[in-house]
Amino acid sequence: MPIKDLHDEKPFDSATITKLEIFENYLTEWLPTFIYSKNNNELNICDFFAGPGEDIMGMPGSPLRILEVLKKFETDIKQQKIKINLILNEQKKWKHDVLIKNIMDKTTSFNNEFQKRIKIHFFKEDFQNLFPRIKNNIINGPNLLFFDQNGVKHITLNLINELESFHQTDYLFFISSAFFKRFTFENIFPDLKFNKDDVKSKDIHRTIVEQFRTLLPQDSKTRLYHFSIKKNKNIHGLVFGSKHLLAVQKFLTVAWNKNKINGEANFDIDEDLDKQLDLFSRKPKITKLQKFEHNLNLFIKEKKVFTNQDIFHYTLEKGFTPKHATAVLKKLKNSNHIEHFSYAKIGYNQIYKYNEIITFRYIK
Question: Are the C-beta atoms of residues 318 and 295 closer than 8 Å to each other?
Answer without folding.
Answer: yes
